[in-house]
């Protein structure tokens, strides 16, 4: 009887020890790149985006309409997105998931020239960046 209790206790202890063992490495995917901020200016003659070359990933474009017309912008390229009409003197913001390729930024006013945004390879991971929102 005593031997049976000792064997049972040993089995329970061995099972607990094996159950407590787990993977020492956690296969987490790295964080995506930090979002970047771009600015765009619309005046009476053209659209200008700065910077005009960026890496792929999440971007927020802040647009200032300094023209005399209400203008909406169409971002056409590997992924498409449009803004609502931006009133003359107004400001708007749009978030884009940019894929690698060239984007044309077309205003809906024919007298205003378009601009091009060149998107390169995906930006580096923000895995080891501290104090990110």
Q: What does the model show?
A:
Strands 1, 2, 3, 4, 5, 6, 7 and 8 form an eight-stranded mixed beta sheet that branches. The N and C termini lie far apart (62 Å). The longest helix has 19 residues, at 2-20. This protein has a domain at 36-122: Cupredoxins -  blue copper proteins (Immunoglobulin-like, Sandwich). By secondary structure, it is mainly beta. It has one helix and eight strands; from the N terminus they run αββββββββ.
- What oligomeric state do the depicted chains represent? single chain
**Cα shape:** rod-shaped
Largest sheet: 8 strands, mixed
CATH class of the domain at 36-122: Mainly Beta
As a whole number of angstroms, the C-alpha radius of gyration is: 27 Å
- The total strand number stands at 8
Separation of the first and last Cα atoms: 62 Å
**Secondary structural class:** mainly beta
Question: What is the percent of helical residues?
Answer: 10-25%
Which percent range describes the beta-strand content? 35-45%
CATH superfamily of the domain at 36-122: Cupredoxins -  blue copper proteins
CATH topology call of the domain at 36-122? Immunoglobulin-like
Annotation field: number of helices? 1
Estimate the mean pLDDT confidence. 86
Order of helices and strands: HEEEEEEEE
CATH architecture of the domain at 36-122: Sandwich
The poorly predicted ranges are: none
């Amino acid at each position: 009887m005593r031997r049976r209790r000792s064997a049972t206790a040993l089995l329970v202890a061995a099972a607990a020890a094996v159950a407590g063992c787990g993977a020492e490495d956690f296969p987490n995917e790295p964080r995506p790149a930090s979002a970047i901020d771009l600015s765009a200016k619309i005046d009476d003659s053209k659209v200008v985006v700065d910077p005009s070359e960026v890496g792929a990933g999440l971007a927020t474009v802040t647009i200032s309409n300094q023209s005399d017309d209400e203008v909406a912008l169409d971002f056409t390229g590997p992924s498409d997105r449009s803004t609502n009409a931006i009133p003359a003197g107004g400001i708007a913001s749009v978030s884009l998931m940019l894929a690698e390729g060239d984007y044309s930024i077309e205003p809906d006013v024919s007298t205003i020239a378009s601009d091009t945004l060149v998107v390169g390879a995906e930006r580096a991971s923000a895995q080891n960046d501290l104090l990110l929102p």
